[in-house]
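User: Can you recover a sequence for this backbone? Please restate the input before giving your answer.

Assistant: Of course. Working from this structure:
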């Protein structure tokens, strides 16, 4: 009598969507740490009442300039100059150089254990870029990658990407310009790239595109790109 083998379909990873609203950069960092710690506790087999959760944190930030770990030192005089514009200034452990976050910009912080997907930081960054490119295409915008990290519309960056990954737990992520005030970028060299500019969904389309207008499309393209299920 022959054996009948039944193959069960592979379950897709489940990612919790957490909409934080408009918050300070410091509060955004703390929210990330909470989810990161749950992953780390599980990896260390520490008893915890809270199981690890793959999550996507969505937010807008109050005006803030941030620098990444590639910036060994940033002149105090420059830091003070930027603060005088009415923005905060933060040093972070993400990759990349200086950038700006502010209202009208959709910030997405995936807190993922890449062991549930693919243990490759290069792959992960590429998936984030492709997610945003596909979102832009849904809006009718031709976007692409370049040798410089991020997503570009010709020579203008529409989405900055800077991540941190420790023990294959990701943090930080992407910042998509929707209808934010781009003049904030004129006070810095965004991401340290000379001779290039910034743009937004609104500027590229010559019509108003708000963060709420972009959220659902971002989540849809993210779910398809990462082959996961989103839980709200």
């Amino acid at each position: 009598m022959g054996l009948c083998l039944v193959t069960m379909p592979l379950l897709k990873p489940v990612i919790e969507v957490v909409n934080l609203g408009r918050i300070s950069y410091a509060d955004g960092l703390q929210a990330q740490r909470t989810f990161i710690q749950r992953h780390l506790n599980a990896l260390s087999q520490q008893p915890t009442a809270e199981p690890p959760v793959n999550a996507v944190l969505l937010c807008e930030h109050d005006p803030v300039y941030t620098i990444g770990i590639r910036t060994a030192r940033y002149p105090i005089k420059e830091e003070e100059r930027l603060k005088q514009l009415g923005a905060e200034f933060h040093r972070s452990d993400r990759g990349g150089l200086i950038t700006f976050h502010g209202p009208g910009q959709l910030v997405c912080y995936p807190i993922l254990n890449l062991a549930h997907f693919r243990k490759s930081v290069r792959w992960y960054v590429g998936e984030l870029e492709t997610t945003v490119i596909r979102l832009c295409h849904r809006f009718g915008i031709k976007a692409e990658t370049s040798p410089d990290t991020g997503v570009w519309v010709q020579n203008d960056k529409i989405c900055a990407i800077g991540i941190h990954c420790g023990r294959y737990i990701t943090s930080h992520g992407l910042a998509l310009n929707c209808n934010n005030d781009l003049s904030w970028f004129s006070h810095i060299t965004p991401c340290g790239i000379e001779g290039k500019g910034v743009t937004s969904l609104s500027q590229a389309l010559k019509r108003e595109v708000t963060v709420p207008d972009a959220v659902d499309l971002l989540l849809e393209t993210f779910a398809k790109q990462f082959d996961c299920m989103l839980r709200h």
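That completes the design. The CA atoms of residues 16 and 231 lie 5 Å apart.
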